[in-house]
Amino acid sequence: MTTHTPVTKNQTVTLSFEDLTHDGAGVAKLDGYPVFVPRALPGETGTAKVVKVKKNFAIGRLLELTEESTNRAEPPCPIFKRCGGCQLQHLDYEGQLAYKTKHVTDVLARIGKIEDVTVHSTLGMEEPWRYRNKAQVPVGEQNGEIVAGFYAERSHEIVDMPSCVIQNEENDRVVQLVKGLAKKYGIRAYDEKKHKGTLRHIVTRHGKTTGELMVVLVTRGKELPNKKNIVEEIRENLPEVKSIVQNINPKRTNVIFGDKTEVLWGEEVIYDYIGDIKFAISARSFYQVNPVQTKVLYDKALEYADLNGDETVIDAYCGIGTISLFLAQKAKQVLGVEIVLEAISDAKNNAILNGLTNTEFAVGEAEKVMPWWYAQGVRPDVIVVDPPRKGCDEALLDAIADMKPKRVVYVSCNPATLARDLQYLEEKGFKTQEVQPVDMFPQTTHCEAVAKIELV
Ligand code: SAH
């Protein structure tokens, strides 16, 4: 069957852009047929070369702009176009926040059929740069030289990166130091095609309020030549480092961490504060990457939970207990559940660290533990969920419906699964009251949002 598309490959077309896709490409329509062009903005007109033609859409490469958006900005990062890490540096921050509000609103309506709900304007940062507290940098070799940086967009080519404009300076320093030490001590980078070599990733974490640093060297095997010297030089050069660990990942995989972590020097964790609460964070535990906005996000979750001190609250997907401990300050009792064992052990320690005795943490799949809790007679007043990108399992949403809490607070890093899950809950008698997007990831297309849902 032949299909008729209004464009052909390699053709140069003139386009007027009217929207942005979820991954930040400009959208122009030719007789209703969409053409997606990376780094073009709504309100702009220009020419693009068609590089891919599909039945329902085409992809173009931007050639020239004849009309520029008033929200267009000069990307400060020299490798913005090659690195896949940021997608929106060419859009000013006001434009980014408006894009995120619109994206959440559109997706709720399109996927969840949720239209009569207030989506507030996205809460942004005063300084939307250098915000990340964690770097996970792949290591490779180019012409026999160690490189460390980012995978170029849609590829496995490693782009060397001396500095990253959304990364905390401290993390940049760690990465540059370790890269230099790997060179000096002849450490070979891991070669993913041949499954040979040693150093796979340099991971660093920074506690914004304590200044503490953790360095994680992810290696293919247990062996790390000159381990002692490397540790000593890291300590000499960066006294803020409180923890140096080696994680061993012997698998052929894109997943960064392996199962085994060994402390090479110092503590197993570093500490950080969000508000008044102190957190111990270990190498593999999930901890929000934007500490400034995490406070904003959790404050909003707490506001939506609307606690008076008498409630039993469940925090599903609780990680190291961050939201749980925020809630525990205002609730009678908080039950947290999380799949990663180390995170739960961090959560328990964090509760002790903060003298919060009204918490209990369980390790397991939230979609199994919640129905079990229901069967045990647990009837929470409020349930908070903060799932990974794939959203909540139906078994978990069913358990929520069975437990009949007054309120559900849904913290989401993916508007599409948020919309799907809200629709499911609405079918079970809940009603979405309001949604607040919070910009956790400036310069990127990632959207985080908190929704307040009530049983009606
Ligand atoms: N609320 C925490 C963590 C949110 S990230 C915070 O704000 O820091 C999502 C968490 O869900 C991660 O810690 C991840 O390990 C966990 N997770 C993923 N799948 C899960 C599942 N099926 N059951 C329970 N936890 C899960």
TrEMBL record:
Molecular-function GO term, any one: 4 iron, 4 sulfur cluster binding
UniProt-listed InterPro entries: MeTrfase_TrmA_AS, NA-bd_OB-fold, SAM-dependent_MTases_sf, TRAM_dom, U5_MeTrfase_fam
Keywords: 4Fe-4S, Iron, Iron-sulfur, Metal-binding, Methyltransferase, S-adenosyl-L-methionine, Transferase
Record: residues binding S-adenosyl-L-methionine: Q288, Y317, E338, D386
Gene Ontology terms describing biological process: rRNA base methylation
PROSITE patterns named in the record: SAM_MT_RNA_M5U, TRAM, TRMA_1
This protein's record includes keyword Iron: yes
Keyword Oxidoreductase: no
Active site per UniProt: C413 (nucleophile), C413
CDD domains referenced in this protein's UniProt entry, alphabetically: AdoMet_MTases (cd02440)
All copies of domain TRAM, residue ranges: 6-64
Family per record: Belongs to the class I-like SAM-binding methyltransferase superfamily. RNA M5U methyltransferase family.
Matches recorded under PANTHER family: RNA M5U METHYLTRANSFERASE (PTHR11061), TRNA (URACIL(54)-C(5))-METHYLTRANSFERASE (PTHR11061:SF30)
Name listed for the protein in its UniProt record: 23S rRNA (Uracil(1939)-C(5))-methyltransferase RlmD
Species in which this protein is naturally found: Alteribacter lacisalsi
